[in-house]
Write a structure and sequence with these properties.
alpha+beta, 8-stranded mixed beta sheet, globular
Length: about 1150
């Protein structure tokens, strides 16, 4: 009681101002803050929170009703798939999934209803990812020699095409043998196959009784009785033991024939790189799982004790041998001979041959793929698509001839993650004695959902999820089309690996992760009956080897990954490791964490040669715009393509503001890694600077104290309420309170004082008291930009959701503008305020603007324009200028750009012309003037051709030439070009293109529509300059007028893909005779690498001859659809309508 009394007295004294706040204990401060904080809550906020709860319940009910109706409507509508319905397209589509999964789909075990699992917590979900459980013979056939083969072929000029042909020449006969013997290929594990022979009809999974009510409530219907009846009828025709023996006999015959025939189909065109097989065989119950579901993407895998058996059997088999587990030997010993393995585990034996001396094809069981035609899934093609990569689906959808589809086949630089999970068996069921235990299948579903969130957030691709001889494995690739971020794929991969380890640690599991970066072959392997999109190469093997050496829940990376990510991420030496398949030790690095104190581009920009180049065309425009805004508010918009110098112009703007004594509030939207654009981060950084400045101003601290007293019912004395000029606020004549406020500025304000400082700024603006009193209730929304405010996130989210329901007002944007208006009104006369927001485009493929951020920026722009219009005689005491630095395609706000035009504040940063490039190079490297004018011309031409006149690209080219020793700096500081470089064409042929520019060009290409990509691919096979008639010779599926429109769109300077070539004689050429060339050689090179050699040869013949092809020839040669752009849009709309996502 005494403590409470003393604390109350101390609080009372502090409110009256008799006790210095610095003398109060922390407990007293906390109680005072809590008391003041209570007054920030009013009935308006409480009502908003209650409405939020009602809205959440209503939304949940609406979602359930809408999705139930959607499923019923889809069943009634019988929509036509965008994939053609002929038998060839159906067969091609089905070839990407195994037969057992096809049967599960045809029997109704895979349903569109399963996306409802995303609405639930994975821990309490009714969904069991196990589609079926059945006994089966399992074969793991691993090929030896693939790594050496792919590395050798990759060094050839058209290596990707040779690799694809060689692999398919190998897998084609192999798949035919498997299919002949009734096998079902589940997975392609790089250079290995997992094959099964089911000894029982795949049956529906057991549904736990505890979840049956939830299943019924969700409207999920397996049609269990019908399915079980049909399956029991099929199973009744075959004795279970007979079925097991027949499955095992078929598997053994298949293995023997593979080893017998591989000497023929295992031969390759590369001497010394013939392929051989070593095989492991097991038999036990297995389970087929379907896991994931995020963004409509699901993964399937096979699990069970048979996989454990082959993990032992396969390593025991040498090249050309087949090893059986004891369980498999027991079922096959009646008709096959075996030989025990000396020193091997008990019961494992090597398969010798059949006792009869001949190989017979076993009569297939009714459910084997070869026993019947593929299941009819015409009305369930959407279910097949969920297991197929998008790039493959687009190729198949756009193909006129499904038997001649040009699946993607490329050598790409990628970053590969290999993850192994210990202690997880997807086959295991929950323990009956522990009702809280989660089954292995449900744990797999939980992990895959979390993994997908991490991978897709960083724009990677899950390529494999499987259980093989190494355990539970996950293969993730960064850099597969269209998600290419060549410059920072290694950073994304390491950050993703870190998140995977964190997820496993949170679930009490142990994992090991390896990351490697390099070139590998990416494409479709297999034959007409079974194929899969995969990645093959040394980099994949290296990541797997590093995974095996990584610590528990640790990440081990190769030197290439470390080198490319070390500017952002921190690593420590992992030593030189001796790895399988490597002749020399490999240097490894352990990932430690994010590098501290990152400030991207700051040092590089301050030393940029553009800032000191007086001939830069963008400088005069910026100076003119800034001079026009010196005494008047307005909007400044610095725009231009990437690398054109926007950041340098922003640096110049900052220097101008500081030189004129203005307050500078700047912010940018990139996270420290430079990968993510963070919503509202520019506003958060700008408001953080605003509050830092306000906290050092005794005026705002004292004003906030008065408002706190007022909120507690303690009205200040009359002389303290009013200043000499009659204005509201603290009186500057009160020495004691001002001195106290000055001392308070040395400490950062806490929540209550911070809140009332913001209210004080709102009250100091030009809005009326009625408007301010209404707007004050929405002040907690400022927590989204003033992160030190301590309002509960639930309440802020509720208010933000309520704000979104209004069409006329955006309260978040209004309170941001009101705070800034009030703050700038109290600046000293003649002091302006520059709000500089740099909104960059991240390297992410998919990007969207935050609506709240856009609304706030628009509101700030409107504030500047309002103050501009209210200025007396065009002059303001405290002008406010909003400076936006961004590409037009990123900002996407016509109103802000229109305001900038009205203020004459549009400042474009553009690529340089050829003459400007030569002048910039003279400033950049200052070539020695020894009479060698030709060298300057050669260097300028080369830099312009490679970089397309992009300033940052030109600097990259110069840096590349210096690093390669072709550009030398003399003692006088001038530069000389290496003798013997010849002309610019010689430089292009002898120097590899800079990888950073290649990455930018890849990103540019992947953002184009399929039709535009197709035009560029044909153009890359033509001469340096090409016309519409040449292009049309190789693109007759596009109308001439449409082709001209595409080329004109690509020739727009903002597109930076093509350039118009002016007529040489100075005359005006007709639109049909217009000539074009690529914007840069880097883009031409990138596009050319994506064209197969056979296609290139044929296209060159067509464009040189200008021949006209009939439709049948075009179908055969082009292998692409007439309207791929419409196909892509139909795919997207189909996803939105049918997936309900």
């Amino acid at each position: 009681a005494e403590s409470v009394t003393a604390t109350a007295a101390a609080r009372e004294a502090a409110v009256e101002g008799y006790v210095d706040e610095a003398d109060m204990s922390e407990e007293m401060k906390a109680m005072m803050e809590e008391e003041a904080n209570k007054h920030t809550m009013d009935p308006h906020l409480v009502m908003i929170a209650a409405e939020r709860q009602i809205m959440e319940a209503a939304l949940a009910a609406a979602r359930a009703d809408a999705r139930r109706e959607q499923v019923l409507a889809m069943q009634r509508s019988k929509r036509t798939s965008i994939i053609p319905q002929d038998m060839a397209h159906k067969a091609a589509l089905l070839s990407f999934v195994p037969g057992v999964l096809q049967r599960c789909i045809s029997h109704g075990l895979v349903s569109l209803d399963q996306w409802k699992v995303l609405l639930e917590s994975p821990v309490k979900s009714w969904y069991d990812p196990v589609l079926s459980r059945f006994p089966a013979a399992v074969v793991f056939a691993d090929a030896s020699g693939f790594t050496k083969l792919t590395e050798t072929l990759a060094r050839q000029p058209n290596g990707a095409e040779h690799i694809g042909k060689t692999l398919n020449d190998f897998f084609g006969p192999l798949i035919a043998i498997v299919h002949q013997h009734g096998g079902d290929i589940i997975k392609f594990s790089g250079d290995a196959l997992t094959i099964i022979w089911a000894a029982q009809e795949p049956a529906p999974p057991r549904i736990d009784v505890a979840h049956s009510a939830d299943v019924a409530q969700m409207g999920y219907d397996f049609s269990m009785n019908d399915i079980e009846d049909s399956m029991m009828g099929a199973c009744a025709t075959v004795d279970p033991l007979t079925a097991k023996r027949r499955a095992m006999e078929a598997a053994a015959n298949c293995c023997l024939q593979i080893q017998q025939d591989i000497h023929a189909f295992g031969k390759t065109p590369v001497p010394g790189c013939d392929l051989t097989m070593h095989i492991g065989v097991g038999f036990a119950d297995v389970a087929l799982l379907q896991v994931g579901g995020l963004l409509g993407r699901w993964e399937f895998c096979l699990a069970g004790k048979a996989l454990d058996q082959i993990s032992i059997a396969e390593p025991l088999a040498h090249s050309g041998e087949t090893c059986f587990s004891p369980e498999a030997v027991a079922l096959a010993s009646h008709c096959f001979n075996f030989e025990s393995i000396p020193g091997g585990p008990g019961g494992f034996a090597k398969l010798l041959g059949p006792k009869s001396g001949r190989l017979d094809v076993v009569e297939p069981l009714p459910w084997w793929p070869s026993a019947e035609d593929p299941p009819d899934v015409s009305d369930r093609l959407k279910l097949i698509k969920r297991f197929i990569p998008t790039s493959v689906g687009i190729c198949l959808a756009g193909a006129l001839d499904a038997n001649a589809v040009a699946y993607p086949e490329e050598m790409r630089r990628v970053s590969v993650i290999f993850l192994s999970i210990a202690g997880l068996d997807p086959f295991d069921a929950a323990s009956a004695g522990d009702p809280t235990a989660m089954s292995g299948g449900r744990m797999s579903q939980l992990l895959m959902r979390l993994f997908q969130r991490s991978v897709y957030a960083l724009e990677g691709s899950v390529n494999k999820f499987l259980v093989d001889d190494k355990g539970v494995l996950l293969l993730i690739v960064f850099g597969l089309p269209p998600l290419i971020h060549l410059a920072d794929d290694p950073i994304r991969a390491v950050l993703c690996a870190m998140r995977l380890c964190d997820t496993l640690a949170d679930e009490g599991l142990e994992g090991h992760v390896g990351v490697a970066t390099g070139h590998c072959w990416c494409g479709v392997v297999g034959g007409n009956t079974r194929r899969e999109y995969t990645v093959l190469g040394d980099v994949v093997n290296l990541s797997a080897r590093l995974m095996g050496k990584a610590a528990v829940n640790g990440v081990l990376v190769d030197s290439t990954t470390q080198e490319m990510a070390s500017q952002v991420l921190q690593f420590e030496d992992g030593g030189e490791l001796t790895l399988k398949g490597k002749a020399k030790p490999v240097q490894a690095f352990r990932f430690v964490g994010l590098r501290r104190g990152l400030s991207p581009h700051s040092l590089e920009v301050k030393n940029s040669p553009l800032l000191s180049w007086h001939g830069w065309p963008a400088h005069p425009g910026l100076r003119h715009a800034l001079d026009g805004l010196r005494h008047r508010s307005g909007v400044l918009f610095i725009t231009g393509p990437g690398g054109a110098g926007k950041t340098e112009l922003a640096e110049t703007t900052e220097a101008w503001a500081r030189a004129n004594g203005w307050k500078l509030l700047n912010g940018q939207n990139m996270d420290p890694t430079g990968i993510f654009s963070v919503p509202r981060l520019p506003l958060q950084e700008a408001f953080h600077e605003l509050m830092r400045c306000a906290s050092r101003d005794p005026f705002w601290r004292s004003y906030a104290q008065d408002l706190i007293r007022e909120s507690l019912g303690r009205v200040p004395k009359k002389d303290e309420q009013q200043g000499e000029d009659g204005s509201c606020g603290p009186c500057p004549q009160s020495r004691r309170r001002c001195e106290k406020a000055r001392r308070a500025t040395q400490e950062a304000p806490r929540h209550a004082e911070l809140y009332w400082m913001l209210i004080a700024m709102m009250r100091s603006g030009q809005l009326g008291q009625n408007s301010i009193s209404k707007l004050q209730a929405w002040a907690p929304l400022l927590s989204m930009v003033v992160t030190d405010l301590a309002f509960g996130p639930g309440m802020v989210a509720a208010m933000a959701e309520r704000d979104e329901q209004h069409a006329k007002h955006n309260r978040f944007a209004e309170v941001c503008a009101a705070v800034l208006d009030g703050y700038t009104n109290r600046l000293e006369p003649g002091v302006g305020c520059m709000i500089l927001l740099h909104i960059r485009r991240s390297s992410a493929f998919y990007q969207s603007r935050d609506e709240k951020e856009s609304a706030a920026i628009r509101s700030l722009a409107e504030l500047c324009m309002q103050r501009r219009s209210n200025a007396v005689d065009g002059h303001e005491s405290n002008p406010v200028v909003l400076c936006i630095v961004s590409r037009e395609s990123v900002l996407k706000d016509g109103a802000v750009m229109q305001y900038a035009q009205q203020c004459k504040g549009m400042v474009p940063a553009e690529d340089l012309s050829e003459e400007q490039t030569e002048a910039f190079l003279e400033h950049l490297v200052r070539l020695a003037r020894d009479g060698d004018t030709r060298n300057r011309e050669v260097l300028a031409r080369y830099a312009f051709d490679v970089a397309g006149g992009n300033p940052r690209g030109v600097m990259t080219v110069v840096r590349e030439l210096e690093e390669r020793g072709l550009l030398h700096r003399t003692t006088s500081g001038a530069y000389t070009l290496e003798d013997g470089c010849g002309d610019s064409q010689g430089l292009r042929q002898s120097i590899p293109l800079p990888q950073s520019l290649v990455g930018m060009a890849f990103s540019t290409f992947e953002t184009l529509s399929p039709q535009e990509q197709m035009v560029l691919k044909v153009a890359s096979t033509s001469n340096v300059e090409f016309g519409l008639r040449e292009l049309h010779s190789g693109l007759q599926q596009i109308e001439f007028a449409a082709l001209r429109a595409v080329c004109e769109r690509l020739a727009d300077p903002k597109a930076r893909t093509l350039r118009r070539v002016p007529p040489r004689n100075g005359s005006q050429a007709s639109p049909d005779d217009q000539k074009y060339r690529f914007y840069s050689l880097v883009l031409r090179h990138v596009t050319s690498t994506l064209v197969l050699e056979t296609q290139r040869t044929e296209l060159r013949r067509l464009t040189s001859m200008g021949v006209k092809l009939n439709s049948a020839e075009m179908e055969k040669l082009q292998k692409i659809g007439r309207n791929q752009m419409s196909v892509l849009s139909e795919i997207e709309s189909s996803d939105e309508e049918e997936d309900g996502e």
